[in-house]
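Notes from the pairing session

We agreed to fold both candidates in a single pass and log them together. This is the raw record for the first candidate, unedited. Please don't reformat it; downstream parsing expects exactly this layout.

Candidate A
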Amino acid sequence: MRTASASTVALEDFIQAVQSQLDTAQARMALKAQNDSLSLTFAIRDITMDLKAHVEMQDGQVHIKPAGSGDTEASVLHLVFTAITKPMIEENAVQLAVDTKDDTLLTEMTDELSEEEIRRLERVGVRTVSKLNEMRQQGLGRSVGRITNLPIDKLERVLSRATRPMINDVEIDGERQGDTARRQLRVRGRNLLRDGSPPRAMIDGRPVGIVQATDTEIVLAPREGQLAGQMSLAHDDVASSEVWFDLSEPLEAPPPAARFDDRLPPYPEFVQ
């Protein structure tokens, strides 16, 4: 949320407003040329603008306030708008899209990062959790923290929370009857691997062996008494995921009790 007063405007908003009007003018000129069947027409390639304004910083953003008549203390912003083609845009534009559906934008982590901290990371090209994790894997985590003036432990906490294992489903493999060693638990979810390694698995505080693991599924080898309880998966001591489950064998129903009709005599009567 911006706190700028009504008399100032963010520099990016001003540039986008000018660009929007130039796009409209371009579309109108193209439409006129098509409808009038003109063999020759004109287009605008460059626009130069000198803007006298006072420059302010508010919440880490540049804001401008137009100068009044005769104002000699205002700065002069020299802006040049030039035409570029679509291939040039695709080649030079900053990639803003999330690469995968499971990636997380930093703007969704406002409970861990403030808006100002998110802007600092965006200025160095870090807009998603996967990008932050990529830089950490390259050994650049401390450099990012130093440049953005963010504590490295805070960045690690953001990564741990965003990439903690997520559990969607737990089911039992193997026969329900017989030896417990033949049974396995199949856990489905996401973020089940970090740097190629599976999470630490616990059930009711006791470790569970991992038979195999992918990023979306792990197979556990439970011990006696571990077919029900609280399952915990964690890559570190910062963030974990817990789920309650119960895949133990159901108790067998007791045989029905004998029922007696009190209206009948205790011994059969013989007809004389």
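Candidate B (folded immediately after A)
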Amino acid sequence: MRILFPILVALLISGCSSLKVDTDFDPNVTMDPPKNFYIVHKPQVNENTLTSERIINALRNELVAQGYKSVSKENADFYILFHTGVTTKSRVVTDYKRVNMYPYSYGGGFGYGYRGYGGSGTVTVAESKNYSYKEGKLIVDAVIPASNRIIWRGTAKDQLQSLDNPQERTDYINKVLKTLMSKFPK
């Protein structure tokens, strides 16, 4: 767990985005009229608090923009929690190339010249490359405090990369949470 959160920082500071978001919810729960929320976060050992504060601020901003109100824990109708994780992924890319072993040969009525693909003397070569990369995941849950029941879950996944400065990191986190929270019930 110690290395998990620092690695998450890389997710949240990735530049080239392959962002994927997914949501799930309880269709029997309505959020009308807009209700009160509280963001619950318990810092982990060796957590990068800069990143977690950026996440908290982005979550709060997105919910307030949708008409929800940030209140104390005691007055909240629902809690927002977030979880992070990093997984090493592997991707195999196979490149199939057709190679004509005799590019200049008699071309069946067309005389001498390039035969192109196919025909005798053509060999298919498959070249596979294995790419390993880190994929970060951010999970945001909306929970009813009395029952501790999840009523909405949003998941954002992206390939980890680096960004150069705090503003780029903040902008990226804001972009991820804007995309994810756009699917939150209004």
